[in-house]
């Protein structure tokens, strides 16, 4: 298999192979990775997380299918739920990949200036970029479906019908992922062709955040139906036609034939949507490569703001206001920063929407529950962690020189301004969102008590994230190699989620007990005050730095301890 693939790649044009490799290594911003800028390692970690998720869920299905009390109807219901769940997960992964690699398939300023003078055809550049983005999508789709893509054909078709169900599953997964990425590509390409470059760069920030939230919300709220009767009833009421996932479920039913469901109308809409998306994506790519390739040279990635009088809302003293506004502009104008932060904010936004959906469905105020307390804690943690993860990424190396030359105050004032930026851009927006959501919950005194606890926890998270930080946000050169994507993900799942669950249950128990609540406030206020004092004391002796540098390592060979051997 490896030799066949190697011989196939060797037959491709050399220009295409070189460009495909370079674009694949740039499919994710190198500066956004804390893994020594090692893209293959990042792709391996990304695939490893998805493979573990797929394997665990597939093992759960195998164990459940071995239950001797499981009937044929129960097995059919489990298979229907599994197919719908994995199709929804596949579309979610494809959507997140499409948004995370926003406009990577289109030529940027560097491509136009470097490859423009070279004898490289535009179609070769286009093919290499499509192949690079498709490679990342292929890795994600195979990784998330590697377990169920084998288990489900065995359970649903047996050995006799295994090939047919196997082909149906993977064709459906590929079609669903292509539909999502093609739809994003079509929308993005048309906007890039119609709008001026500066307006497209401005609207990209909003579109990326909305895209993340849209895919996460669709994954959270789209229904699943595990019986033929429920599926037929939903189809009769037009529910299935509203969700693209069921279109591709209809394609799976049409090809595999293992479910006794009449899904011809859904399958027809699925095939029709694939054809429309394919034509739209091809048209948008052709328009961009023919019309917008020259415009990318004229406009920088950072969009200049409007000149004129602007109302500057004071956010502290003059220095704190300047640092906060600089951080806010960096998030709004830099594609690299907004992609990373939009991912964290979109998850928090999806959590907020899922919390609000319970109130909308029941149409009455909810009682404070551990789920609500844990969700709000996760929202705060995601916002702080997301903003802290991009603080070290420079918005522009020119900012280093400007801020370094204009350092007129003591370093402690700049560090205090950094803390203010952290609070204004992450903690306060989430706290206000939670306060708005809390209007739908009762009793009022428990809501007020939880908001006070959440404010103290936000202070703790902020000061903990800024320990040993002596730099201005977005104004320091960056050295990757300080984190591990896979380990961080599983640490969040294994450590933070159980701790947040236990803390939420304990908090709910003490909300109606004044002594317990006072003890909890004391237990939170003491570390918050201690962290604030430690950071403030360290800031008095800190030195701002604008250049990251590797620590000097002195290696000795032990010559001083060598002794000659006796003859």
Give an account of the 3D structure.
The protein contains 21 helices and two strands. It has a two-stranded parallel sheet with strand order 1-2. It has two domains: 10-298, no CATH class; 318-540, no CATH class. Helices cover 72% and strands 1% of the residues. The termini are far apart. With 567 residues, it is mainly α.
Q: Count of helical segments?
A: 21
How far is it from the N-terminal to the C-terminal residue, by CA? 61 Å
- What is the mean pLDDT? 80
Assembly status: single chain
Shape: globular
Total individual domains: 2
List unreliable stretches of 5+ residues.
30-37
Instruction: Report Rg.
Output: 27 Å
Percentage of residues in strands: under 5%
The strand line-up of the biggest sheet is 1-2
The major beta sheet can be summarized as: 2 strands, parallel
- SSE run: HHHHHHHHHHHHHHHEHHHEHHH
> What fraction, in percent, of the residue positions are helical?
over 70%
Class of secondary structure makeup? mainly alpha
- The counted number of beta strands is 2
